[in-house]
Each structure stands twice: as structure tokens, then as C-alpha cells.
Design goal:
By secondary structure, the chain is of the alpha+beta class. Helix content is 30%, strand content 25%. Helix 5 packs antiparallel against helix 6. The longest helix is centred in the N-terminal third of the chain and has 19 residues. The chain starts with a strand and ends in a 6-residue tail after the last strand.
Length: 275
């Protein structure tokens, strides 16, 4: 059974083995994704993420365990990547018109994910104003939560694909295709996956004016970067695959040391690739 819904700024496809309870299980998986979107969406001024951005430097903010888990993973990847992965670049994307303007940027000097501290497991506060954007990690986490929901509802195997952030579980084997950066409508078959996750970062579908900025920002120098190739990361969980694609695409290093720390591996598809 295959079902598809528009979520997370893309289309999410859930595929399972046919069965009498598959429809209910898939609905539970979609609800999990919707909850992640509700908690961590930058576009929603009422989301927990927006509340963290608006008030965490003024007072402690109590958050959902899922939000706490994503922030914890984000802080860990920040450390292991030596700052290449940092969710605290939302203000740069707001300045570029790529994210909605919920706060007055000229009122603050913003900190990063390293300035957010956990007072308790679900209670956070920041030393500085923040403009966190979890778009580089939350989509992968949502895929993982969808898989958890399917497993909890006795679905033995299947896959969840959120615009290229994909996880395969059980006995299902999924062909893995990556878009050709030179001709994005063409697909390159790179193999198959039975258990694991893959995510890809690229700029080939970023339709922009010539003077518009890239949505990819290097946190180390706060500059928008451009690249024509694509970078994919394979990991056990999609949250790590999603976040680590930013590490390799920003650094250009498919052998970055933090990949081995998270038992992940990266693939670079050059712009010159032809089928």
C-alpha cells in the first residue's frame, strides 16, 4: 500500500506491505510527521521552535520530548562537526527572504545552537537571542518518527520518503536513485537499501533570480554558499542522514571525520555526471 501527502514543504510517500491494518498504521505515521511539523516548524509563529526563538533568552522554555531530542542531536552534531552544522543561522535566511520574518533582526545579535542549554531534560534557556532553523534536521527526524509509528502498529517492513529523505525498514528492499545534478529530471541508480536511511542536499531545484542567495549557509563565516554537485549521506537513522548532508555539502568533504562518528558514509554526485 502506498499513500502520499503534502507535508514538511514536500510530498511524503509512505509505502508498506499490503495488509488489513496498513491504512490505520499509515495514518498514524502521517500524524507523527504532522506533529513534528507542528512542533518544529519555523513558518508557524506558534510552534515550539518559534517560542524558543522568541523567548528562550528571556526565560526558560518547556518543550516536548521530541523537540528536546532534535535539539540534543543538533548540539551533538555541532560539536562533532566543529561548528559546520549549526541550526543558529535562521536570521541569515530571514534576511535573504527565504524564511518568514517573525522577529526584528536589527534588535538582536543572534547566538547559535551552542548557546542553548538544557536546564532539565525538557527545559531550555539561551544565553543569547536565537533564530534557530531546524529545517536541516527535523525532516529526517519526522521520517524516523513515521517509521516508529509504522512499527508500533505492526507493519513489518516498508519505507518513508520525504522529498528524498528516505528510510527503509524490515525486509523491504528499495532501489535508491539520486537526481543527476546536471539534469535534475534524470535519475541515477546507485544501488538498493534494505535497512537504513539516505538524505541528499543540493541546490539544483532552487529556482532563484540571479542575485538571490542560496538557502545553504556556512555557519563558520555566516556566508551563503553555492555548489553545483549533490551530496548524499547514508546512515542508520534519517535524522543523522539529513543533518550530515549539511556537513558534507558545506565542507565539500565526503570523508569528514564526523561521518564515522555517526556510522555514516557520504556520496558526491558531480555536476558533470551523465547517465
Amino acid at each position: 500500500m502506498i499513500r502520499c501527502k503534502p507535508l514538511l514543504g514536500t510530498f511524503v510517500e509512505i509505502s508498506t506491505e499490503d495488509g488489513g491494518h496498513s491504512l490505520h498504521a499509515i495514518e498514524m505515521a502521517f500524524r507523527a510527521i504532522e506533529q513534528v511539523q507542528s512542533l518544529m516548524g519555523f513558518h508557524d509563529p506558534d510552534s515550539e521552535l518559534s517560542q524558543i526563538n522568541a523567548r528562550s533568552y528571556l526565560e526558560p522554555i518547556r518543550i516536548h520530548p521530541w523537540t528536546a531530542e532534535v535539539l540534543t542531536i543538533a548540539k551533538e552534531i555541532y560539536v562533532e562537526s566543529k561548528g559546520i552544522f549549526n541550526c543558529g543561522i535562521g536570521h541569515r535566511l530571514v534576511e535573504a527572504g527565504l524564511l518568514p520574518r517573525h522577529v526584528r533582526l536589527d534588535d538582536h545579535s543572534f547566538g547559535g545552537i551552542e548557546d542553548l542549554r538544557f536546564i532539565e531534560s525538557n527545559l531550555v534557556q539561551s544565553k543569547l537571542p536565537l533564530c534557530l532553523d531546524l529545517g536541516g534536521i527535523a525532516k529526517g527526524y519526522a521520517v524516523d518518527k513515521a517509521v516508529e509509528a509504522l512499527l508500533a502498529n505492526d507493519i513489518p517492513s516498508g519505507s518513508v520518503n520525504a522529498g528524498g529523505d528516505m528510510r527503509v525498514f524490515g525486509n523491504c528492499t528499495q532501489d535508491i536513485q539520486i537526481r543527476n545534478p546536471r539534469k535534475p529530471l534524470e535519475l541515477i541508480q546507485i544501488g538498493s537499501m534494505k535497512l537504513g536511511a539516505i538524505a541528499t542536499s543540493s541546490l539544483y531545484f532552487s529556482k532563484r533570480d540571479a542575485d538571490a542567495k542560496s538557502y545553504m549557509v556556512n555557519p563558520l563565516n555566516q556566508e551563503h554558499i553555492e555548489f553545483s554537485e549533490s551530496y548524499s549521506v547514508i546512515a542508520g537513522e534519517c535524522v543523522y542522514a539529513d543533518a550530515l548532508t549539511k556537513v558534507v555539502s558545506i565542507s565539500g568533504n565526503t570523508q569528514h571525520p564526523c561521518l564515522s562518528h555517526f556510522s555514516a558514509q557520504a556520496i558526491k554526485i558531480p555536476h558533470i555526471t551523465t547517465l
